[in-house]
Amino acid sequence: MAARDAKNAKYAKGLEDLGDGCFAYLQPDGSWGLNNAGLICSGEASLLVDTLFTPGLTAQMLATMRRAVPAARDIEVVVNTHANGDHCWGNQLVRDAEIVASRRGAEEMSELPPAVMAKLAKAARIAKRLGPLAPGVGRLLGALGIEALATVVGAAPYLDACFGAFDFEDIQLTLPTRTFDDALSLQVGDKRVELIEVGPAHTKGDVLVWVPEDRVVYTGDILFIGGHPIVWEGPVSNWIAACERIEAMDAQVIVPGHGPLTDRAGVRAVRDYLEYVHGEAKLRYEAGMSALDAAWDISMGAFSGWLDRERVVVNVDTLYREFSGAGRRESVVPCFAHMARYWRTHRH
Fold first, then answer.
1. What DSSP string runs through 260-327?
2. How far apart are CA 199 and CA 275, in angstroms?
3. 8 A C-beta contact, residue 246 and residue 274
């Protein structure tokens, strides 16, 4: 049994001992790129749940874990809960371990390579320095057909605010060495660890990591606590079902992908958000409103105090694609331009 109640846990950067060989590594405030990770130990065996956004951040985390937990000195298994870089771009530092992910999650990891992110972040920094000249440069690039760069220029202050603190240089994309579909049971010393695929939802292949004996579940980005979730993939109904699955578990401590440790009430809040946005978007879709207009029109109400409210733009766009059957978007880059415009208006 986990010794710590989530309600009594502090939310500070570093390693949180959950009891019985389970740990959470937390990164406040949980916004873009500041994800949580986990460590599960039994005897000398250990499993790492997710790496961090960069090798530098991952190295700090591993050093912290190894100082506190002897079993972390030789991590045998790593589970990537999904394909977003903030949960797998530190894999190169644990390349000698068996790296496990869902098949769909592993396939998705190559869609946005770290080198592309490094170029986008660098372009955003340069564009930000252009100051008042940036809009004109963006329009010129757009006229020349260089849409990706035009988008980056237009969204430069926002992209820099989200990602400017991260160093994406020298990341070597290190892919999983073992994949699975639906579910996989692992043994970590005397502990049974269940991997449960609940995607597509946030991404194509989201995975929950459940330690039933200790009543601890690591949810990856199925849970953003205190922040707006972002529905890159959908369908939203899958995400709601994933929340319901977590609520049905006998979990004492729930480690979200972003934000503080939580309990069933935190899971319900995320499910409430998804159901609310789904309902509000459906009303506006049926009224003939565009996805962008709908996102701006939806009142955030009880969720207005959550971080990163601009993500509603992506969430509504994903829902509209579901309603119309339009399929997946070709690129996420335009999403950042739309979120940037919303962010400029709503950040104060």
1. S-B-HHHHHHHHHHHHHHHHHHHHHHHTT--HHHHHHHS--GGGTTSB-GGGHHHHHHHHHHHHHT--
2. 17
3. no
Burial category of 168 from C-beta neighbours within 10 Å (exposed 0-12, middle 13-18, buried 19 and up): buried
| CA 104 – CA 82 distance, rounded (Å) | 9
Per-residue pLDDT 10s for the chain (348 aa) are 344 667 667 899 999 999 999 999 999 999 999 999 999 999 999 999 999 999 999 999 999 999 999 999 999 999 999 999 999 999 999 999 999 999 999 999 999 899 888 877 777 777 666 555 445 434 433 443 434 555 666 678 888 899 999 999 999 999 999 999 999 999 999 999 999 999 999 999 999 999 999 999 999 999 999 999 999 999 999 999 999 999 999 999 999 999 999 999 999 999 999 999 999 999 999 999 999 999 999 999 999 999 999 999 999 999 999 999 998 887 888 898 899 999 999 875
Q: Is 305 exposed, middle or buried (0-12, 13-18, 19+ CB in 10 A)?
A: exposed
CATH number belonging to domain 6-111+173-273 = 3.60.15.10
Type of residue found at 87: H
In the 8-state DSSP scheme, what is residue 131?
A: G
State the virtual CA torsion across 248, 254, 256, 259 in degrees, nearest 10.
130
**Cβ count within 10 A of residue 250:** 8
| Distance from C-alpha of 80 to C-alpha of 95, rounded to nearest angstrom | 13
User: How many Cα atoms sit within 13 Å of 272 on the Cβ side?
Assistant: 12
Q: Give the number of other Cβ atoms within 10 Å of residue 115's Cβ.
A: 13
